[in-house]
Amino acid sequence: MIDARRVMEKLDMLGGYVARMKVIRRLSRDEFLADPDKPAAAESYLWRSLEAVFDIGRHILAKTGDVSLAGEYKSIARGLGDRGVVSKSLSEILVQMAGYRNRLVHLYHDVSNEELYAIMESGLPDLERFIREIADFVQRSTDGQQH
Q1: pLDDT digit string (tens) for 78-98?
Q2: Is CB count within 10 Å lower at the N or C end of the chain?
Q3: What phi-psi label fits residue 111: left (phi over 0), alpha (psi between -120 and 50 degrees) or beta?
């Protein structure tokens, strides 16, 4: 059984990271690139966001009996879609996020500030969608437990 409180706490944390990235997103491209602290902050919030996404996914899969899928990041992404935790279309986006998470962790020196700016511009709705779909899943899961 999933720990709904734990999942919701992580979703709140993820929402906070998204909110901080929205503040960064308000900067013009030139402002973002001129201050080395802005890309560093964006990268940190993005990395933390992706870690939260996959921590949540790992927990849900492990607690619903799909421990074999709870290891590798792309497996987590696919497993969430295959099990109906998130939509198939979001699952495909999560697979891409898993690859990007690996780049941030292992090939961080290849992630450009321009790339980070582009993600701040276009990638945040995917994280917001994840929050909504997981919150919906938690609601559906806990509705059946209440008597």
Answers
A1: 999 999 999 999 999 999 999
A2: C
A3: beta
